[in-house]
Design brief:
Layout: H1 21-42, H2 52-66, H3 70-89, H4 92-97, H5 102-128
Helix pairs in contact: 1-2, 1-5, 2-3, 3-5
Length: 134
């Protein structure tokens, strides 16, 4: 019977592929944000032909998934703050929530949840990565 031993040459560390809960929450919030914008468009909300609120979160999610570091998580935080500020300052959010259209109300509520989650998780992921070198 042959036994195998782990030596420094055979031991593996998969920490490069593991993601912290804050990074997973950031990625999830970015994808939920994009999906909520798509839901608003499907419900009939007025958006440009190429909606930045849909494209930007998808691009940033791709960057965070590709290279998770302080700069990409900080970029995700910035997207949450930027789009969140727009959602608060424009009358569209209030109009959507008071429209009476269930799909529009649900997708707008999902957008607000995604934005709040993105800001909190993006800040946590950025601060957690401050000491990490990637």
């Amino acid at each position: 019977m042959e036994t195998t031993r782990s030596t420094p040459e055979t031991a593996r560390s998969d920490t490069g592929t593991a993601r912290s809960p804050a990074v997973v929450a950031t990625l999830s919030a970015l994808l939920l944000l994009a999906a909520s914008i798509a839901g608003q468009i499907a419900a009939g909300a007025d958006y440009p032909t190429v909606p930045p609120g849909l494209v930007i979160p998808l691009v940033v999610a791709g960057l965070v998934a590709w290279r998770t570091n302080r700069w990409t998580t900080g970029l995700a935080l910035g997207v949450g703050l930027f789009i969140g500020t727009g959602a608060i300052l424009t009358p569209n959010t209030g109009d959507h929530l008071s429209s009476g259209d269930t799909a529009l109300i649900a997708s707008t509520a999902a957008e607000l949840v995604a934005l709040a989650t993105l800001v909190i998780a993006g800040a946590a992921a950025t601060l957690a990565r401050k000491g990490a070198r990637h």
